[in-house]
Automatic annotation (TrEMBL):
This is Transcriptional regulator. It holds the Pfam family HTH_20. Gene3D superfamilies: Winged helix-like DNA-binding domain superfamily/Winged helix DNA-binding domain (1.10.10.10).
């Protein structure tokens, strides 16, 4: 049976803004401003969705350096696949995520030892 975190993810994924955020950040990290434009929503609305997605480990933040030397956060989707099966106890939810940048670095570092 799915734990509460997995059920929360299923609920989160039902939001139209979340769908747009995940699709837009799947291939290329995006800023909240770009996501706000894509969703035609106020940035505060997008920040709330981004926070929920980050807490659910479906989105990760990266710092991006601008040519003028300033930096800002961009977000990249970690969600790869969600599988939901009906079981006697309720839903069986499996979530597959992309490897995070930190995990990738650790794996590469461990490979050099």
């Amino acid at each position: 049976m799915a734990d509460d975190g997995e059920v929360d993810v299923v609920e989160i994924l039902g939001d139209d803004y979340v769908k747009t955020i995940l699709v837009r950040t799947h291939d290329e990290p995006q800023s909240v401003r770009a996501l706000s434009d894509a969703c035609d929503a106020d940035p505060s609305t997008i920040y709330r969705r981004v926070e929920r997605l980050t807490e659910a480990d479906l989105l990760e933040a990266h710092q991006q350096l601008d040519p003028d030397g300033h930096h800002h956060k961009v977000y990249a989707a970690r969600l790869r696949e969600v599988r939901i099966r009906l079981a006697e106890e309720g839903y069986d939810v499996e979530i597959e995520r992309e490897e995070s940048a930190a995990d990738r670095f650790t794996r590469l570092y461990e490979g050099f030892k």
